[in-house]
Amino acid sequence: MAMSGRQYETVPGFFIQDSPDRLPGPVGLSTQNEILPRLGLIDERPDRWSTFTAAIHSLNATATRGVQYKVFFIGRHGEGFHNVAEAKYGKKAWDEYWSKLNGDGEMVWGPDPQLTPLGEQQAWDAHVAWETERRFGIPVPEKLYTSPLTRAIRTSQITFDNLIVCDLRTTINVREQHGIHTCDKRRTRSEIHDAFPEYTFEDGFTEADLLWKPDYRETHADVDRRVTRVLDDIFQNGHEQCRSVSLQRVLGAALRADGPFSYIDHDAWRFRRGILAGVSPLPLVSSHRR
C-alpha cells in the first residue's frame, strides 16, 4: 500500500496467520470459530513474548535509514444487532432494503447499534485470551485506536478491561465503511463521550457525523485511502512500537489485492466477531520504508 509515497510491508515468520502451511485445520473453519492459542504466535515457549519483543527491538536497532517496525493487534467488534438483522433477512435484502432502516419493530440496528449479549461475550472471550498471554509477557499496546462506533468502542473496552493503561482514542479514519446503511452512522461526539468518557477524540472530530451520507456508500478504494492515512500518521508521528486497532474494515483494506498484507488469504482468516487476532494484520509485524 503506497498511495502516500510510503511503502508498507509485513514481516512473516512470527505468527501462524501469515504461515499457510501452519493452518490449524481446514481453511476458514478453525480460524473463524476459535481464538488461536497465543493469539497466533508460533513460538510456544514460556518466554515466547520476551523473545518476540527482543526480536522487534533488534529489527528496529538494525533497520536501514527510513525503515521502522511496529506491531499491530487488529481486531473485529463483537456481534451487533445489525449483524443479527442481516442474518435474519439475508445479505441481498439487507443491502437493498433493511439496512436503510433503523429497525423492523422487533429490534433496532440504527443508528450505531449496540453489541448483542453474544457480542459482549465474544469480547470477554478476547479479554480472557489477552489475560492468559499477559502471564507470559505479551507486549501490551501503547496506544489504542478504535472506530467511533459503539460496537467497536465497547469491544475494545471489554477486551482490555484492567489490562492496559494507554491512550484510548476514537479515530475518524478507523471506522466501518460508511454511507446508506444506518448501522454505520455514528452517534454525536457528546453521546460518545458520555458513554465512554475514558476515550479521547482526535483533532477535527466533529459533533455530528458529517461523513455518513444517506445516498452514497464508500467504495473499497475510499476505505483504502483512509487506512493509508492512518498508517501514515502512526509511522510518521507515533513513537510507540505496539498498537491496537479495533476494526475489521481496516483489516479488509490491508488484505485486498493492493494492500500491504495482500499475500494473506483474507477469506481463510476472516475474523470471527469479537476476536482480536494477534499481531500485525492478523498478526504480523509491519515495516515502513519511505
Automatic annotation (TrEMBL):
Question: Would you say which domain of life the source belongs to?
Answer: Eukaryota
Any matching Pfam family:
His_Phos_1
Gene3D superfamilies, alphabetically? Phosphoglycerate mutase-like
Q: Which GO terms describe its molecular function?
A: phosphatase activity
Q: Which GO terms describe its cellular component?
A: cytoplasm
Name listed for the protein in its UniProt record: Histidine phosphatase superfamily
